[in-house]
């Protein structure tokens, strides 16, 4: 469990450092992401982005468990 938490921490640090480049990919602004903005209210549900991230994580985890 400790090794998993350390690896997860390292991954989060790398993603945090690479965030300026990752944000330019357009994730979060894909067709299918639901954005509702009103006067005093904002709702954001990134369904398409979540599906893409889920598929990518599944492939990566499948590759490492193989």
From TrEMBL:
InterPro entries: DUF2905
Regions that span the bilayer: 44-64
Sorted UniProt keywords: Membrane, Transmembrane, Transmembrane helix
PANTHER family: BSR5223 PROTEIN (PTHR36443:SF1)
Protein name, entry field: DUF2905 domain-containing protein
Origin organism lineage: Bacteria, Pseudomonadati, Pseudomonadota, Gammaproteobacteria, Chromatiales
């Amino acid at each position: 469990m400790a090794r998993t938490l350390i690896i997860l921490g390292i991954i989060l640090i790398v993603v945090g450092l690479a965030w300026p480049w990752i944000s330019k990919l357009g994730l979060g602004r894909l067709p299918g992401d639901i954005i509702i903005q009103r006067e005093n209210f904002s709702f954001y549900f990134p369904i398409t982005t979540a599906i893409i991230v889920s598929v990518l994580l599944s492939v990566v985890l499948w590759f490492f468990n193989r």
